[in-house]
């Protein structure tokens, strides 16, 4: 004997209508399946990497981001994922911010011209940690610029607030993307990856803080990922990791967004 419940779920207004067929008297463990052709809106992901900088003559993130679109086309773009812009930033605080904001604002303008059901945007920023042996998905950025060496424009701030209006340099902004869950999923796929709460105080943290602040103000999302050198983890593995990360980030349940209208089939 089998029990099937069909119900509908509407965003935030949880009003379940059950229809039972051959109902069983006892609760049996159930699995939840999304049914029907109507699914979640597509997620557009914009990606950035960095050029060379002091001590890193060939930045792996420049290669990853430059080749990502073609790589994902060959691999097959995951359903529900739209790969937006793929830009390479100068490894310089002020040099990176201007083109970063051009990209951020351009994406917002495109979002505003589209229907409400397609307004889901994530920015994924890749940066290199030359001493790392694993990938690190960054949970947060700090309102502090303390560069260990001059950036590519010669700037070397020390304990300077990135946004003075945000107050002390200890101010933290966190991503609303479920970092730990995505990290666990990637680890199960065999990648050497950890969750990190320290993006440093160099240009990576500088860009991430700007991006998180902008995302919070505009109803979008931002994520930063540190990768090792290709000498540590080879290029093909890093390309696979980047593609998997984008897929999981776009498809993770809710991903901090409210649920839209779905039909579910709940089966015993």
Automatic annotation (TrEMBL):
<keyword id="KW-0963">Cytoplasm</keyword>
<keyword id="KW-0788">Thiol protease</keyword>
<dbReference type="InterPro" id="IPR016125">
    <property type="entry name" value="Peptidase_C15-like"/>
</dbReference>
<dbReference type="InterPro" id="IPR036440">
    <property type="entry name" value="Peptidase_C15-like_sf"/>
</dbReference>
<protein>
    <recommendedName>
        <fullName>Pyrrolidone-carboxylate peptidase</fullName>
    </recommendedName>
</protein>
<dbReference type="Pfam" id="PF01470">
    <property type="entry name" value="Peptidase_C15"/>
</dbReference>
<dbReference type="InterPro" id="IPR000816">
    <property type="entry name" value="Peptidase_C15"/>
</dbReference>
<dbReference type="GO" id="GO:0005829">
    <property type="term" value="C:cytosol"/>
</dbReference>
<keyword id="KW-0645">Protease</keyword>
<keyword id="KW-0378">Hydrolase</keyword>
<dbReference type="GO" id="GO:0016920">
    <property type="term" value="F:pyroglutamyl-peptidase activity"/>
</dbReference>
<comment type="similarity">
    <text>Belongs to the peptidase C15 family.</text>
</comment>
<dbReference type="GO" id="GO:0006508">
    <property type="term" value="P:proteolysis"/>
</dbReference>
